[in-house]
Amino acid sequence: MMHMKKTSLSQKSRRKLIVTIVTDTPIATQGELAEELLKRGVSVTQATLSRDMRELGLAKFRNNKGNFYAIYSQQQSSSNFTNIYRQFILSVDSVMFMIVCHTRLGEASLLANEFDAAKRPEVLGTVAGADTLLVVCESVRSADTLIEEIRYAIN
User: Fold this and answer.
1) Which residues pair with 126 in a beta bridge?
2) Which of 3, 17, 27, 65 lies deepest, with the highest CB count within 10 Å?
C-alpha cells in the first residue's frame, strides 16, 4: 500500500482543490469529499470541511444519477432563481407576509441556503424543516411578488 504524505494547505489552496474535486468528480457526501482530499494528501476535520463547503457555496443537486454536490453561485438575481425554484419546490402557498414552500425530503434546508446566501432584500429570513421551508418576507406586497415569481417558475 502506498503511503501518501499528508500536507497542510492554506485555506485558499484547500478550497481551490475542493472546487476542482467537485467539478471533476461526482461527490454525493461530505465523507466522499474528505476521502478525495485525503487521496490528494490533504486531511481536514469535519468542521473545517463543513465551513469550506458552506463558504464555497456548495449545494447538493439532483440529477438522473442521484444527488451530487456542485458549486452554486451565491450572487443570484431573482431571474436566476428560476432553476432553483424548479429544482426544489414542489408546491407553494402564502399567508400574509410568509411563504410556505414544499420540497422533497431533505431539500428544504438546501432551498433555505439559497435564499439566505442571495441576501434578497425582501426576504427577512427562512426556517427549514425536512420538506417544508418558511420564507418570511418584509411585507405582504413583497411576499405576493415573490410567490408570483415562484409560481411562474414552477408552473
Assistant:
1) 135
2) 27
What Rg, from alpha-carbon coordinates, does the chain have?
18
Cβ within 8 Å of residue 99, ≥6 positions away: 92, 93, 134, 135, 137, 143, 146, 147, 150
Angle between helices 11-24 and 30-39 (to 10 degrees): 110
- Average pLDDT in the 109-125 region? 88
Cell match 485558499: residue?
12
- Total-model pTM: 0.55
CB 101 within 8 A of CB 94: no
> Residue 125 — φ and ψ, nearest 5°?
175, 170
More confident residue, 73 or 119: 119
Cα 83 from Cα 1, distance rounded (Å): 45
145: three-class secondary structure by DSSP: helix
pLDDT of 40-92, one tens digit each?
999 999 999 988 887 887 777 665 566 677 765 544 444 467 888 888 899 99
In the chain, the domains with their CATH numbers are 11-71 (1.10.10.10), 78-154 (3.30.1360.40)
Give the span between the Cα atoms of 80 and 91, in whole angstroms.
Answer: 19
